[in-house]
Amino acid sequence: MPKITDFLTELQAQLSTPQGRGIKIKQDPRTIKRFNHDNSYHASRDPAAVISVKTEDNVSLVMRLANKHAVPVIPFAAGSSLEGQTLALDHGIVLDFSDMDKVVEVHVDDLDCVVEPGVGWSELREELKPTGLFFPPDPGAAACIGGMCGTNCSGTLAFRYGTMKDNVLSLRVVLADGTVIKTRNRAVKSSAGYDLTRLFIGSEGTLGLVTQATLRLRRIPTHSTVIIAQFPTLASSAATVQHLVQSGCPFLRLEIIDDLCIKAVNNEIPDPSKKFAELTTIMAECAGTSQDAVNEQLEAFKAACGTIAQNVTMATTEQETDRLWSLRKRAFFMAPSLRHAESEQGKQFSTIVTDVAVPISRLVDILVATRKMVDEARLVSPIVAHAGDGNFHCLMVVDKNDKDEIERAKKVRDDMARLALKMQGTCTGEHGVGLGKIHLLEEELGEGALEVMRRVKKALDPKGILNPGKVFLEKKGSKL
Amino acid sequence: MPKITDFLTELQAQLSTPQGRGIKIKQDPRTIKRFNHDNSYHASRDPAAVISVKTEDNVSLVMRLANKHAVPVIPFAAGSSLEGQTLALDHGIVLDFSDMDKVVEVHVDDLDCVVEPGVGWSELREELKPTGLFFPPDPGAAACIGGMCGTNCSGTLAFRYGTMKDNVLSLRVVLADGTVIKTRNRAVKSSAGYDLTRLFIGSEGTLGLVTQATLRLRRIPTHSTVIIAQFPTLASSAATVQHLVQSGCPFLRLEIIDDLCIKAVNNEIPDPSKKFAELTTIMAECAGTSQDAVNEQLEAFKAACGTIAQNVTMATTEQETDRLWSLRKRAFFMAPSLRHAESEQGKQFSTIVTDVAVPISRLVDILVATRKMVDEARLVSPIVAHAGDGNFHCLMVVDKNDKDEIERAKKVRDDMARLALKMQGTCTGEHGVGLGKIHLLEEELGEGALEVMRRVKKALDPKGILNPGKVFLEKKGSKL
């Protein structure tokens, strides 16, 4: 790989310049291993080097040289992506943003803040707490703003506040050739030319690298209550959510956790009296600027649950709120515990996570069909749903060494996505395309839309060095 | 213009084919005159021809031939744009979408609908009323969905529901060469590849032509009340709005109408007892799913008004609501009445509308500075503000034949925009760039961002036939 050598030599020579100061080049096996995978089931890929950056100037320098030498660059902060977005294909270098983690400005009076891409949303939430403001998107706990822009993520609060697209006002971006641009100013509304902010959001690092993001903040609701209700079937819980969404009631969150998922979370609860009944559960958060607003949502929730629901439980203390939310928060991590007995025998597991979303009226249909597919494929897979948005995840716990099981899981993932497409839904509600859904994206949008994406990519990154091999193939029918 | 002749000849020959059926070619002076201007102060430009289309197939055919002959195509539906977006530069043809005005599907259970670009938002609102749902963006009354996508418009409801970007789920678009694509499916959340929906929204017809839009609908609030309060100064009204926005209270609308604007609207009210006091006025709409929710907002509003506000008036009947809203609705149309005496002398007036938006904490500063600029330039200009979004319009009523006055108005427009940029705001909150703000867009975003837009444009429309000369100049420093 002579181009890598030339690139690294030239970069090395720049480390003492003002633009290069702060850059660290790492090629030791331990660092390579830390940056060769993400949170997904995709096979690890060793980067040729890991370059840590501290400033926008650093990023611009790296990109100028990488472009000159046609070296692929893969952005990385938390590595919490679920579709292989941070894997270093084509012997590229990983650009490590974890040191660009400053909250640059907080404008309390404008309800916005400016942050670097390595800032984690959960740390940001802590830091902002004294201001009474917060940034709504809440994906996996480790996720950082840079990657969150990349995948257009969301989480449990999207039902009220929308996804990253709806919560980022502006970006500073380094392009493939090292040019730095800003996409917008800080006004909450703007029609100033093409919406470059939202062109970069969701582009998974293939069009440019975010070096600063201006985030729209919201006031933390002064009043909120978590309520859960349990249902005899997945279908009856989903039907209840459909009804609640159609009613227009402004819940803060509206989630479904299926019976198997409850079972997994129960595995972590030692005290039998604290375990939850293993039934599919709707978890809602009712919130507003007054207790009246909360009560109104609670009443609507209870009314919709009717007589079918069991164990309607409202959190009355912070401790109880935490206990109820732990159900949702622990789902991803506890899913493998369903195969604990096999782990004891030395088997190793990973989780293949699906991510389809459908128009809300189809939620019952797709959940019922999905449960059937999963069962028929003999897979262990809890289901959690950002039900208010018609979006859900199967957490398919597969034996890393059981090729047949993995193939069955991939088939279910594809079949489920194709069913969602038939319902005019999407193969990815919030995790992005990465490596795992390239074939599905083309089925979803068709060749024409893919060709537009390719042309935009080519226009902004003519050498194809930014996160190559992700989202779509560079040419129709080409293979990775 | 031989290319036009060749294009029209070839198109004419296709009119009896399945793809061409429904197309009408018009070149009579009356039609040319109807389609040679928009709602702005920009000078009219005669198109070479007006082509009326009825189907997506028609649009695709026209584009294929226009691309072949390099004929510029300017999309047109209502012609209600305020920055010259529909003017036929470069001897182009106008593509008239007003016959593509079908509501194709309404999915009540999914809270969305599919419409053609010639559907007007106000007609759509009427049509949807029986379903209990509505589409929030509410720009000028005549505006159609196609143009609304083009400018990423919004209106008085953006404070709660956002702009077009936040309310369009998916588009079908005909590209420069006639290719038809869809940008998304109907799920409310999707991370499926680049966000082409939002690339086309706000591109003012320069990247592709919308032939179908899937719109997100909301439930009409079951309870709502309009309340107004009048203030001794523009500054005190704006300070009150800033405070209300910062409080996070979820008003439906939050508008400011200045004293001069009230005077203009009063000109239309014959009964002196029905006229409004000529004071700057905040108009809020409080709305929700219960009277409690409304009352909470009303109380927050009254508390923020404190003792400074006068004439706090709440609408208790539908008639009173209409009366209060007429203040805002009639502003644009009544502004010229401020120069009625001169009209009587035979002078002709047009209105130059500005459209800056700033971060909310700067609303007082920019409004006060703007009022000073306008007064110092001896202009007659009411101010109306979508205050909750930090967005406002000066309605500068200028004598069409007074070149000096027009120059003064343009200077104020530019000075005001530059002041907004200093405050990290935008030169256009919702009307778009069109012809009138090309120079300001470059100041706002810088050459790097403009170059990205040019590259995207070149990638999707290599011959530059889609609405040429709008949004930005094709080359840096080039003139129209």
UniProtKB/TrEMBL annotation, chains A, B:
<dbReference type="InterPro" id="IPR016171">
    <property type="entry name" value="Vanillyl_alc_oxidase_C-sub2"/>
</dbReference>
<dbReference type="InterPro" id="IPR006094">
    <property type="entry name" value="Oxid_FAD_bind_N"/>
</dbReference>
<dbReference type="Pfam" id="PF01565">
    <property type="entry name" value="FAD_binding_4"/>
</dbReference>
<dbReference type="GO" id="GO:0008720">
    <property type="term" value="F:D-lactate dehydrogenase (NAD+) activity"/>
</dbReference>
<dbReference type="InterPro" id="IPR016169">
    <property type="entry name" value="FAD-bd_PCMH_sub2"/>
</dbReference>
<keyword id="KW-0809">Transit peptide</keyword>
<dbReference type="GO" id="GO:1903457">
    <property type="term" value="P:lactate catabolic process"/>
</dbReference>
<keyword id="KW-0285">Flavoprotein</keyword>
<dbReference type="GO" id="GO:0004458">
    <property type="term" value="F:D-lactate dehydrogenase (cytochrome) activity"/>
</dbReference>
<dbReference type="InterPro" id="IPR004113">
    <property type="entry name" value="FAD-bd_oxidored_4_C"/>
</dbReference>
<dbReference type="InterPro" id="IPR016164">
    <property type="entry name" value="FAD-linked_Oxase-like_C"/>
</dbReference>
<dbReference type="InterPro" id="IPR036318">
    <property type="entry name" value="FAD-bd_PCMH-like_sf"/>
</dbReference>
<keyword id="KW-0274">FAD</keyword>
<dbReference type="GO" id="GO:0005743">
    <property type="term" value="C:mitochondrial inner membrane"/>
</dbReference>
<dbReference type="Pfam" id="PF02913">
    <property type="entry name" value="FAD-oxidase_C"/>
</dbReference>
<feature type="domain" description="FAD-binding PCMH-type">
    <location>
        <begin position="43"/>
        <end position="220"/>
    </location>
</feature>
<protein>
    <recommendedName>
        <fullName>D-lactate dehydrogenase (cytochrome)</fullName>
        <ecNumber>1.1.2.4</ecNumber>
    </recommendedName>
</protein>
<comment type="similarity">
    <text>Belongs to the FAD-binding oxidoreductase/transferase type 4 family.</text>
</comment>
<keyword id="KW-0496">Mitochondrion</keyword>
<dbReference type="InterPro" id="IPR016166">
    <property type="entry name" value="FAD-bd_PCMH"/>
</dbReference>
<dbReference type="GO" id="GO:0071949">
    <property type="term" value="F:FAD binding"/>
</dbReference>
<keyword id="KW-0560">Oxidoreductase</keyword>
